[in-house]
Amino acid sequence: MANKEALRELQGRLAERLQEVRSLEHTTGWLAVECAGRPLLFPLAEAGEIFQPGALLEVPHVRPWFLGVANLRGALTGVIDLAGFLGLRERVPPAVREQARVVAFNPALEINAALLVDRLAGLRNPEQLVAVPPDGRPAPAFAGGCWRDSAGRLWQEVRLSMLPREERFLRIVDAG
Hints:
This protein is of the alpha+beta class. 17% of the residues lie in helices and 36% in strands.
């Protein structure tokens, strides 16, 4: 029970901090998350509200990474398992659901979707990270820069605004 309270407190502090950071005009920063052990960064300007995973209405004949539709603040929103979409796993393990969170897209992007992430890892700002030069391999349009933190951990930026431009993101129907 204490763990759930601690997680709720962390989520509340992150939501408050997210609002504070958004209110600062010239601030660049990221919401740090993990998906299947992979550290990822969402630009704060593109990330929206954070929710606990709740009841999902499953949708038949969709890809395994499209988890269903949720009612988020009165709006029906498609929920995507980001790790599944990225090919890091096939299904969300039940043990992951305890810490998992649903990150909505910023309403200004007008993308009626949210991403299930395994774990929130706080906020990051440019002073905490060092840019890593591209390795020359092709990357999808939604892949932003790579960053290294002081512990040597490599973080991949995911540009949420670019996800809908990825044809695979829009093709949720499982033709097989």
